[in-house]
Structure formats: C-alpha cells, structure tokens
Amino acid sequence: MVETTEHAPAAPEPKYWHLRTVLLRAIDSEFGIGQVIPNERELAARFGVARATLRQALDQLELEGRLVRRRGIGTLVAAPRTTVPVSRAEEGWPGAAPDTAWRIVDCTTAPATDRLAQALGVPAGESVHTVRRLRVTGGQVVGTESLHVPDSTVAHLPGIVSGAGSGRSVLRQLQHLELAGESRAVELGVAEAEEARLMQRPPGTPVLVVTTQYAARGRIAALAVSTYRADTCRLSFGETGLVEVAPVESALAGVRAS
Residues of the chain whose pLDDT is less than 50? Predict the structure, then answer.
C-alpha cells in the first residue's frame, strides 16, 4: 500500500504583497536615496491597482525601512540602515565610562517582579533600580533601554529617589565593578506604547530586542533590555560578540513588561 500525504493548499499571495515586490524593483532601478517617489494617484494609475492596495504596499515598505514619509514633502527612498555597535568591545558596558551615545531619561526603584527577580537571580521583592536610556545615532533616537540593577549591586547608592540624577548615580556605582562576563539574546518584537513614544514612532513598530545579562562578583550585576528600530538599524556584535538568537517565548521575553 502506498501512503499519500495531503498538503494544505498554499495561501494565495495577497495583492498588496505582490505590488510591494513590483514597487521595490521599480524603486531600486529608478530612484536614488532621498529621492521623492510619485504620489499615490500616479502610482495607482501606473500599476493599475486600487489606492487601498497601494497604501498597504507602501506601508509595508515603510515598515521594512525602504521608504520614509515626510510631511509636506512626500514619500522618499530611505537611506540604508545605520550600523549600531552593541558588543562590549565596541560599546563598553553600562558600568564603563559615560557614553555620549546614550541619554538617561529617568530612573525608578521598585520591588522586583517574580520574572525580573528570576532573570536577575535575586529574591522576589528585592528593590531594583531601572534606568531608562535612549540610544542616539546621528542625532536620531534609534533605540531605548531599560537597565535593571538590583539594590544589592549598588549598595552605596546615594539616597536619590528618582530621576536622571539617580540614573547617573546608578551608572557611577556600576563603574566600581569589574565585569566578569555577559550573555546576550536577540529576538524580534514590536514597540510597546512607551517605547514607541520615546522613539517617536507609532506603537507596533518592528524592533530588535537585545537582552543582556552582565555578571560581576559571581552573580548577575545588571540586566539590560534594549529595543532598536528594525526599520533603520543594523546591529553589530563585533568579531567576538557571542549572541544567542532566542525564540519569542524565551525565558526573558516577559521582562520588557516588568
């Protein structure tokens, strides 16, 4: 007896996705970086499609970082993605000397949730200082970071309750530690409301999430959860940067919301 395996029929390609491919070929062959492409009416007439289908295709290309919309100007061909170094060899670590690529937004202190405590290797409820920072490249915000530091790591922290001043104090305390190692995981995600606001992008914008555990004195000294705009950034981990490509349901996936 010959066994046969039935396969579900392949889903038809959406019209907007086919148009996206056609548009991409036309853009690559006819336009240079920074040039304004024709308006929606002209493009819809040229390719014989409905305006709604065209907008879906354009929205997709904007999400991919191939196009950028400028109010009062139109839709332009986007520049190539910016290479952002994220390895310790290239960037240092939060306990290194102050880095002008990062700007402190604020710092808050709260008891660790169960998930955050597990990621940091501390008892649930231990106070954790969370320093929020912005990554700036070429004058543009390309990413955000939440740096979680257990109170036991920065035992000599001055009594500043919150704010950028407290964030600088946390980073200064980290400078006294000698980093023993780090581990990183990378996953694809979308910008939540607050991350999107800081990056001046709509919620749901694709982002690359880099979760880094820093070890010192035989324990996890800090945990950084960094989100970078996937439409404009290319992450560089250096020649020796060790990266684990993590699935969405990783052990640290829920830390962003903590």
Answer: 1-2, 245, 247-252
Out of 23, 56, 77, pick the residue that ends a domain.
77
Half-sphere exposure of 237 (CA within 13 A, CB side): 13
Q: Give the model confidence (pLDDT) of 163-174 as tens digits.
A: 678 888 899 889
Residue 37: phi and psi, rounded to 5, are -85, 165
pLDDT tens-digit profile of 176-221?
A: 888 888 888 999 899 999 999 999 888 888 899 999 999 998 999 9
**Residue 163 burial by CB count (10 A; 0-12/13-18/19+): exposed, middle or buried?**
middle
- Rounded to two decimals, the pTM is 0.76
Residues 110 and 194 in one domain: yes
Same domain, 86 and 142: yes
Burial 18-55 (b: 16+ CB within 10 A, else e): ebbeebbeebeeeeeeeeebeeeeebbeeeebeeebbe
- Residue 178: CATH number of its domain: 3.40.1410.10
Residue 189 counted as domain residue = yes
Question: How far, in Å, CA of 81 to CA of 246, rounded?
Answer: 22
